[in-house]
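Training component of the fellowship. As part of building independent skills, the fellow (R.M.) carried out the full modelling exercise for a liganded target. The chosen ligand was (5S)-5-amino-3-OXO-hexanoic acid. The inputs are recorded below so that the supervisory panel can assess the work.
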Amino acid sequence: MTKILITCAITGSIHTPSMSPYLPITPDEITEHALGAAEAGAAILHLHARNPKTGQPSALKEDFMAFLPRIKQASDAVLNISTGGSALMTLDDRLAAPKLAEPEMCSLNMGSLNFALYPAVQKVSEWKFDWEKPFLENSDDLVFKNTPRDMARILTEMGVDRGARFEFECYDIGHLYMLKHFVDRGLVQKPLFIQFVFGVLGGMGADPENLMHMKVIADKLFGDDYMFSVLAAGRHQMPFITMAAAMGGHVRVGLEDSLMISRGTLAKTNAEQVVKIRRIVEDLGREVATPTEARAMLGLKG
Ligand code: KMH
Ligand code: ZN
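Fellow's submitted model of the complex:
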């Protein structure tokens, strides 16, 4: 069976420092967590930046550049910079750092959607926010905007102009058809690396039937020209990605997607989640791909 790609999403833009003291915020913490995850077996590191003082998601180039060169220098892992940023950022903001850093990979969210994470936490009432209060309050009226024009712009500016390949984030079945549209327009290079995203309120729920159906439709639309990976928010993370691994897919872990290592226990590092899924996938008989193997599998510029 194909070797398995482990992506680790180090910090994201959703969880907050008040939810876990272990969420990496500063450049030192992001670097340390990223290198630990790579060492544990993550071939791909999915990266966002934070304001080191407040912990808020940051689109500032300086905040990205405070850790990207350090990770690159100390590790061979594939760097994948988010172009999703946060749902509260403009597309210009979201693209600033990726355009400067010219990573081998970046994320591309395949549609606009309502974006709330209530199902990802055990009890909504336990959400304690400081600066993120406006986010929660606005969450009931928040659209994560990714119009066809936005997507075409990211594909052009990052893919065509800078040679990046994409982690196509698909939160719903319609996003697969949108991806097919861009393939047909000639804006997308193969092979495709599609991230099926479960558990964001506004996208697919974490039901196994949805995973099956996503694979059936992706097989139909893309045949042998794609690989799928799975991420699932909160408590669904490990069960869902285990299912993906058993189905021949790839997996994403990381504190962006879940703060826990097991029910009721916070993960202290991103590496812990990588170690856990690595053990599971190796027990399932899958071999973990190295960064060099990942580059060959994904056709990266290197
Ligand atoms: N936060 C995840 C649900 C992005 O960075 O482009 C999806 C994500 C989006 O990783
Ligand atoms: Zn992300």
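The panel noted the following from the submitted structure. DSSP finds eleven helices and 14 strands in the chain. Residues 208-222 form the longest helix (15 residues).
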